[in-house]
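Researcher: Please predict.
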Amino acid sequence: MMMPTIDKRDVRAFLILALFFSSLAALTGLLLSGRAAKAERLAQLLQTKNCTYCELENTDLRRADLEGANLADANLRNTSLNNVNLSSAMLSRAVLNEATLDGATLTEAILSDALLGGAFLNNVNGDRVNLQGAYLGDARLRGIKLRYANLSNANLSRVDLSRADLSHANLRDANLGDANLTGSNLREADLRRIDLGDATLRDTDLHKANLLRGNLRRVDLRRAELAQANLSGTNLSGANLSETNLSGADLYQAYLGDADLTQANLYRANLSGANLTRASLSDAHLDGANLSGANLRRTSFAGASLKKADLTGANFNRANLSDANLRGATFCNTTMPDGTIANQDC
């Protein structure tokens, strides 16, 4: 009896199918194994609150109680952590990019050097949280509480911090370029050497804040509260400070070239050695202010009040002093708009 011959093409097709199904089975096994391992890690976290270096990407941890948990170096990318309790938790160097933490509790948690790019942290309670060196670029932090928090050297570029409470927070050397801080509270915050270039701080409370040598180029500070703030050596070129309260503020050697201070309150402010070239101080209140040694070339003081201001050594060359009130001001080695020197009070 003749045996049927097997076509080589049939053998090839059979081998290809066998390889395909074996690969599919292997991939299915790996997927199931990965899911099982992830479920095991999740159970471990919820039971022991210890899961360092854990892979928990895309995990649902909403409303979980993780107080004091150790998640250092864990991968929590795109994880749902809404209303989770992470107070006093350790999350140093954790990856939380695109994670959702709306309504979470992060009081006294440690997230130093963590990655939170594009994360959602709206209405979070993060008082005294440690975010030193953390990356939060493009994150949403509307209404967040970060009182006494440590955000030194953190990158918060383009973040939404509107209506946030950052009172007494440490933001030394932090980057908040292009950030939105409209209506936020930064009273007595430490903002030394901060980068706020092109940021929006309309109606923000910065009472007694320390902005020493900060970069505030083109910042929008309309109607902001900056009474008794330290702005020494700060770059405010092109900034909008119209209707801002700067009474008693220290602007020693600050740079305010081309800034808009229309109707600003600078009562008893220290502007000694400041550069206000081409700035607008129309209708501003400068009574009792110290403008000694200030560069006021081409600056507009139209309708401004400078009663009892110290103008010793100030340079008003080509400035606009029309309708300005200079009653009781001190003139000594003061360069007037026409280039003449006024010395009547020397």
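Model: The mean pLDDT is 93.
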